[in-house]
Amino acid sequence: MDYQNILTAFNNGITTITINRPTKLNALNKATIEELHKAFDAADKDADTKVIFITGSGEKAFVAGADISEFANFDVSNGGQLAAKGQELLFDFVENLSTPVIAVVNGFALGGGLELAMASHFRIASTNAKMGLPEVSLGVIPGYGGTQRLPQLVGKGRAMEMVMTAGMIDANTAKDYGLVNHVVELEELMPLAEKIAGKIMRNSSVAISKAITAVNANFKDGVNGYETEIKEFGNCFGTEDFKEGTTAFLEKRKANFPGK
Ligand code: COA
Question: What's a GO biological-process term for it (predicted)?
Fold first, then answer.
C-alpha cells in the first residue's frame, strides 16, 4: 500500500506503523486518519502480525494532536462529524482490534495524540515524552475519546485537572498516574517495545484476542464484562491453541501455538 503520511514496516511478527509528518509534529489530519485506519486494518488481518506498534517519526513528537489548521473553520455540524468519524475510523477501531497495539510514545502526545495512545492497548514512553489534552486552550474539548479514556486510566480527579488546565505532564508523572507502563531513554524505547512484544508473541494469539474483548467489555455501556469473560473463556476451549497449550504443559514442553 502506498501511503503519503505514514510508514509501515514488518519485522519478526511486529508491524510498526509510524506517523510521518515530522514538520507538523505528526499532527493528525483527515488523510492521516484514513491511512492509519487502512494500515491498522491490514495489520490486524495479517496472520503473521502478532503485535502492532504505533509511533511517531522524528525525536520530538509522537503526535501533537489533531491538525488544528484543518478544523479551524468548522461549524457545529462539521465539528460533530469530525469527532464521530475519527472515533469510528481510528480510536474505537484501534481499541477493538484483536491484535495487541502498543503505543510507543517517543515525544509530545497531545490532544488526538494522547487519545490515540490511550486507545491503544497499553503505552510505553521515552523520558522526553510530554502528554496532555490541551483542547480547552483552543476553545474545544477532547473529541477522540479523551474525556472517557483519560478518567479510565488515571482516575476522574487527575483527568479533570489535566483537561481543565490543558497542561502537560512529563513521562515520569504519566507513569505515576498509570497512563504509561514504562519510561526509558529514547534510544531504549524501541528495544523495550520489542522485548515486551517478544513476551506477548510466546503466548496464544487467539487467547490474547479474546482477552482484549473481555477487558474492553468492562468499559462498554450495557455490556456485562463478567458475562463476556465467561463466553470468551468457554470459546477458548474450542481452539487449537488451547489444545496445544494444555498438551504442551502436560508433556513438559514449550507450546508451539498454531494461532487458531
Ligand atoms: N496541528 C497542526 N499543526 C501543528 C500542530 C497541530 N496540532 N502541532 C504542531 N503543529 C505544527 C506547527 O504549526 C508548526 O508548523 P509550521 O512550522 O508550519 O509553523 C510545526 O508543527 C512545529 O510546531 P511548533 O509549534 O513550531 O513547535 P514547538 O516546539 O515550538 O512547540 C508544541 C511544540 C507541541 C508545544 C506546539 O506545536 C503545540 O502546542 N502544538 C499544538 C498542540 C495542541 O494544541 N494539540 C491539540 C490539538 S486539538
Answer: fatty acid beta-oxidation
